[in-house]
Amino acid sequence: MQNRKAPGSRRMDRGARLALVLWMGMAACLAQAAPLKFRSANFKYVVDGKPIREVLRDFGASQGMVVAVAPEVEGSVVGKFDLTPRQFIDLLALSYGFVYYYNGAVLHVSASQGMHSTLVQLSYARVRQLRETLERMNVSEPRFPIVYDEIANTALVVGPQEYVDVIREISIQLEKRTRTGGRSVTRIFPLRYTRAADRPGTDGEVQPGIASLLQELYNKGGQGNSGAGASLLRSERSLSDRVAPALGSAQQESPVDTGSLALRRTFNIQPKPATAATTGGAPAGSGAGTSGFAPTAPAPLAGASEQEEREDESLPVILPDADGNNIVVRDLPERMPAYEALIASLDTQPRMIEIAVQIIDIDDSALREVGVDWNLSSRHLLGGSASSIATKATEGGLLTAIIGNSGQALLTRIAALEQQGQARISSQPRVATLNNIAAVMSSEKTFYVKVPGYQSSSLYNVSAGLDMKVTPTATREADGYRIRLEVRIDDGQVSTTETVDSLPTVSRSQIGTQAFVRQDESLLLAGHTVERTEERNSGVPLLQDLPVVGAAFRQKSVSRNRTERLFLVTPRVLD
């Protein structure tokens, strides 16, 4: 009877000696760390054309273990073997391109192209706990190393389906134990310098407090409390985006619920048809042949009850205590140190900044005597001193200038013109504010207009005057403070000479600009022209009141005065 050798047996004859030599180099480290234990120290076996599935079952029977062989593992074995059990099983794996995994009860054998991959994302436990648990249970297999990411709190598992399932189940149980053992706690974080609750701003807008900032940071889209937070979702997606290209093209992912259990990112790797590249002598568990894997869409992991998921979706809860200026946080205990560090970094003492403003009215004809050439945009010397001026024309005819020495040289010139009646300082408000908080200076006049109605009359108020808002933002640099100024000026005047339906008119002008100045520098704003018209009646007493001839004894004169209004803004950081 003629014996025929299967293709697998011929490959066995050619590569057995070389495979055995390659295996001996790594046998020492594998034999110590692997959980697989054998009954005998030596295994002798003679076979001639027997299917590989039956050979593996014979090997399992001799070692007292159950062997489950996948249908994809095929071939015939021919040879005479006198090796240790570890050497025998590894030699077959190298020659026939399969991988094996022993879970303590069953030795699972599957084709190398049937490797699977799972990316485990932990929400409650840490990857350090997962690593320690796997080592303590003697589950981790050095032939299938697990890649841990401490920052994203993830673990990438690649190996046979049975090995991946065991790691996945342990991760679920670890998450459940950590979650039930560390239920949510409530802590109060007192604030010293910043505000916990939102507050109305000077311009009617709401200034967000620390509580709103934390809610925006940790909750989905800043709207309500929607679970573990957008930061965990972003880290989960970023790591998976890095892993997916290495595994293959994944299908389009459906939206992920941030409140569900965070062991979501699981890739079920399906084998492609075997090729020569994936079957030709790939080492067992070496990862060769995994380049043909194609991950499908991630499937959510089970393990969290519906009640637990609903409870987790309510975390974190962040509320402000306006009366005590505290932040109240309810979340898991392991997340509290992150809240404490973030709140401490936000609750810092702000700098105090003094804003001094000089409002100067100067005759248009005397403007050039101030010493500022508004037509130029270079730097100039003011009065021959070391004070420098940089000017710039902005939109709407507004002129700005940066003046050194706190504008003292300019104020000296204004004082000289004031003695000549060509200039005057109409107001000098001064106010201190916090860094990045608007300082408001307002001076207005209000009169009431009676408007008759059908059955009654109503009074409507009309206000006009100066309303100025300055927002400073100071940053420390190597050569001193650099201050950003946001200036908004609303200047209105009530005209007594121009009326509409016997009512006075109100003229308004607005100025808005931003600039950077250093300590001991001033921002000079110009381009706001004010025209005043004055009427004077003079005459001879008694005679000017006579009828007909009285006009010869009285005189009416109209004078028009055009002045330029300057705003000199000087910030100073109060250390």
TrEMBL record:
Identify the residues that the record assigns to the Type II/III secretion system secretin-like domain, covering every copy. 416-574
The record's region (Disordered) falls at 273-314
**One cellular component term from this protein's GO annotations in UniProt:** type II protein secretion system complex
What spans are recorded as compositionally biased (Low complexity)?
291-300
Q: Keywords for this entry?
A: Cell outer membrane, Membrane, Protein transport, Signal, Translocation, Transport
Which parts of the sequence belong to the NolW-like domain?
119-178, 186-351
Q: From what superkingdom does this record's organism come? A: Bacteria
Q: Name one GO biological process term.
A: protein secretion by the type III secretion system
Q: Where in the cell is it found?
A: Cell outer membrane
Q: Tell me where it mainly resides.
A: membrane
InterPro entries xrefs? Bact_Secretion_Sys_Channel (IPR050810), NolW-like (IPR005644), NolW-like_sf (IPR038591), T2SS/T3SS_dom (IPR004846), T3SS_OM_pore_YscC (IPR003522)
Pfam families for the chain? Secretin, Secretin_N
- Where does the signal peptide begin and end? 1-33
The record's subunit annotation is: The core secretion machinery of the T3SS is composed of approximately 20 different proteins, including cytoplasmic components, a base, an export apparatus and a needle. This subunit is part of the base, which anchors the injectisome in the bacterial cell envelope. Forms a stable homooligomeric complex.
Q: What does this protein do?
A: Component of the type III secretion system (T3SS), also called injectisome, which is used to inject bacterial effector proteins into eukaryotic host cells. Forms a ring-shaped multimeric structure with an apparent central pore in the outer membrane.
Please report which protein family the annotation says this sequence is part of. Belongs to the bacterial secretin family. T3SS SctC subfamily.
Protein name according to UniProt: Type 3 secretion system secretin
In which organism is this protein found? Xylophilus rhododendri
Q: Which gene encodes it?
A: sctC
